[in-house]
Amino acid sequence: MAKYTLLKQEGTARRGQFETVHGTIQTPAFMNVGTAAAIKGGVSSYDLVDLKCQVELCNTYHLHLRPGDDLIHELGGLYKFMGWRGPILTDSGGFQVFSLAQLRTIKEEGVTFNSHIDGKRIFMGPEQSMQIQSHLASTIAMAFDECIENPATREYTRQSIDRTTRWLVRCQKEMNRLNSLESTINRDQLLFGINQGSTFHDLRIEHMKQIADLGLDGYAIGGLAVGDTAEEMYGVIEAIEPHMPADKIRYLMGVGTPVNIIEAVYRGVDLFDCVMPSRNARHGHLFTWSGIRNILNEKYARDDAPLDDQCGCPCCQRHSRAYLRHLFKAGEILGMRLAVQHNLYFYNTLMEKIREALDAGRFEQFRAQMLPILGRRV
User: Fold this and answer.
1) Residue 106 sits in the same domain as residue 37
2) pTM confidence score
3) What three-state secondary structure class fits 147?
4) Catalytic site residue 70?
5) Cα–Cα distance measured from residue 200 to residue 206, given in angstroms and rounded to the nearest whole number
């Protein structure tokens, strides 16, 4: 079993650590997103060690379709397959089923959908999601749920979260069965439940209470940053935070910008993931301690300064803004790789600074200082 320890608290913000079979995660933490067992942009699992990554996130849906979870299981699980030695969280595939798949049909048993790769008809329910994630042998498996699009009607939202709760019970039962099998690679695999409820605070609270009673290893907040505003998201977190078990780790799924992360930590969240740092980097949008830079801008053509003189990443330590801009303009893959390394290093360093501020009892000061800077364009 995992163990979350709350080390310090400042207001609602929490400083803790999460012990797992694959290592201890210092929280708050950001998970670097390696959807198909790789970080997009030419960054390897071995690079992530130097970029201060604690946890890598991989995706059940994508890996099930290609190369296949059976193949990964045969080769020893994700750890041997991709070479990462720290904790891995696998997303259940639920979000991708509802966002990528065409012609999906939702029933109590699960969801039938067309693969976005070749159109093949596939069925996935709670048991199938758990079986795939067990094959992948991740540290943490996410429960299979329905990610509700915002805005949603109250009636549909209630029906959906009731079904998601029933699916969660099935996930828990199946994971217990799988962890008892001798053929299972990681018999200490953990299960996180996901809170849903769109932007209806009372339904969110009701659902959180229901899943908290199941005694899971951690709890996630899902279905945000998918059509709702930042203020609506913060409101949902504030509403359900008092009802989240204080002795379990809390994960806000798919969020977000540096400002979003600081504000969510302020409201009691421990764990984050988002494709934004790597995706934005691949288009030349880079996060710095002065604000957000678009390296494609003409003003950087002759700029021999590092991208960020406060950054210790491989790009900033070795190359100029002018060189990085040139690589992008010339279509060189190296430019993308350096930019992704920078943004991931920035995000992981941001979490490090948040932890240091919480340790020192000055998180409120850090928040007030950084919010006006990190969201601006320079």
Assistant:
1) yes
2) 0.97
3) coil
4) no
5) 10
Q: Say whether both 172 and 309 belong to one domain.
A: no
Identify whether residues 346 and 264 lie together within a single domain.
no
Of the candidates 227, 259, 274, which is a domain's last residue? 274
309 is in an annotated binding site: no
**Both tokens of residue 177?**
């069965």
Cβ atoms of 264 and 255 within 8 Å: the answer is yes
Q: What's the pLDDT tens digit per position in 82-137?
A: 999 999 999 998 888 777 766 788 899 999 988 888 988 989 999 999 999 999 99
134 is in an annotated binding site: no
In contact, 78 and 136? CB cutoff 8 Å: yes
The rounded mean pLDDT for the chain is 96
Burial of residue 275 (CB within 10 Å: 0-12, 13-18, 19+) is middle
Contact 56, 34 (CB under 8 A): yes
- Kindly report which listed range (116-130, 329-343, 346-360) carries the lowest average pLDDT score: 116-130
Same domain, 293 and 263: no
Residues 176 and 44 in one domain: yes
State the pairing for strand pair 55-59/88-91.
Answer: parallel
Nearest alpha carbon to residue 118 among 60, 66, 71, 63: 66
User: Does residue 217 carry a catalytic annotation?
Assistant: no
Q: Is 54 annotated to bind ligand?
A: no
Per the residue annotation, which of 47, 69, 273, 308 is the catalytic one?
A: 273
168/182 Cα distance (integer angstroms): 24
Considering the domain architecture, whether residues 207 and 247 belong to the same structural domain is answered as yes
196 labeled binding residue: yes
Number of folded domains that form the chain: 2
Catalytic hit among 47, 69, 91, 270? 91
